[in-house]
Design a protein that fits this description.
By secondary structure, the protein is mainly α. It has two domains: about 130 residues, no CATH class; about 100 residues, Cytochrome c-like domain (Cytochrome Bc1 Complex, Chain D, domain 2), CATH 1.10.760.10. It is built from eleven helices and four strands. The protein has a two-stranded antiparallel sheet with strand order 1-2. A two-stranded antiparallel ribbon has the order 3-4. It starts with a helix and ends with a helix. About 10% of the residues are buried.
């Protein structure tokens, strides 16, 4: 019986060490640290606690099995040695004392002293004390609960589950912002859209004042570069064309490439600001350059037809006045 118990304990310890080594390897791979993995990894303590519980359980169960065996089959007849060898006395006394301290069980020969009068189909009940290992373990949980309450709910030095949840939400929000930044930096001339938020337009205006005023004027009226407020564009006037002009430039015509100085988000912001100043009619605008650009889905009236209709209306009005 003792050999089997020793073999089980060795197997448990070896498996626990193997699991601890796996946990250490996993921890070191995820978060490099100067602290040994067996100390910093909480799984090591879980494994150690589990091993202690299993050892205590095996000891208790071995005692229970032995008591049941004696109860059913009767205590084996053994020759009582009045004066055993010194080594045997020492070894047996150690295990007997340890077993007595852990279980505090009444010897079989004295069970009649603690036998209760409860009888059910021949099964009788003993008034044994609770095992000390269980009793003091229960006391330890009470002390732990008291210290836990003081630490987490009175002093506030610990992190309760709600705080951990809020911290995880904040971390998830930061990760979301990082992903959005990466997604924003993937903007190009094929996926760019017009921004209408006030913050984006203000950021675009700031970039325009720093980078574009010299060539296109303070209000977009044009200087060395073309007027940005009319309907005429040299290289296309939709948001994708404007973004592409800013990104790649046209060095042969004096327009430099800004992709090395502005990120995709900034180029989208300044492109949206340029689109927002269309039709503002600034003072001293530069003459029209390029071709007339019409936004998709919009209709631009013919200027000739407009002038004819205006003159016709004027002549009709004059004749009406003359008649009056």
């Amino acid at each position: 019986m003792k050999k089997k118990l020793i073999n089980i304990l060795l197997l448990m310890v070896s498996s626990g060490v193997a699991l601890a080594q796996v946990a250490i390897t996993t921890t070191v791979e995820k978060v490099p640290s100067k602290i040994p993995g067996i100390v910093s990894d909480p799984m090591s303590y879980v494994i150690l606690f589990t091993i202690v519980i299993l050892v205590a359980t095996i000891l208790v169960m071995s005692r229970v099995i032995r008591l049941l065996t004696w109860q059913i089959a009767g205590k084996p007849q053994q020759v009582v040695v009045e004066e055993p060898e010194p080594e045997q006395v020492k070894r047996e006394s150690f295990w007997n004392k340890l077993n007595a301290k852990l279980n505090d069980a009444v010897p079989v020969e004295k069970e009649a002293d603690v036998l209760l009068d409860h009888d059910y189909d021949g099964i009788k009940e003993l008034d044994n004390n609770l095992p000390p290992w269980w009793k003091y373990g229960f006391y330890l949980t009470i002390i732990f609960a008291f210290l836990y309450m003081i630490n987490y709910h009175v002093v506030g030095s610990g992190t309760v589950q709600l705080d951990e949840y809020n911290a995880q939400l904040a971390e998830a929000d930061l990760q979301k912002q990082e992903r959005l930044k990466l997604a924003a930096n993937n903007i190009d001339e094929t996926s760019v859209t017009t921004l209408i938020a006030e913050a984006d337009l203000s950021a675009g205006q700031k970039i325009y004042n720093e980078k574009c005023v010299v060539c296109h004027g303070k209000s977009g009226e044009g200087n060395v570069g073309p007027n940005l407020t009319d309907d005429y564009w040299i290289h296309g006037g939709n948001i994708r064309d404007v973004f592409k002009i800013i990104k790649y430039g046209f060095p042969s015509k004096g327009m430099i490439s800004w992709q090395s100085q502005l990120n995709p988000v900034q180029m989208q912001q300044v492109s949206s600001f340029i689109k927002s100043i269309k039709g503002t009619n600034p003072a001293n605008p530069k003459e029209q350059q390029g071709t007339l650009y019409t936004e998709e889905g919009s209709v631009v009236a013919d200027s000739t037809a407009s002038s004819v209709s205006d003159s016709t209306i004027a002549s009709v009005a004059d004749s009406s006045l003359a008649t009056k």
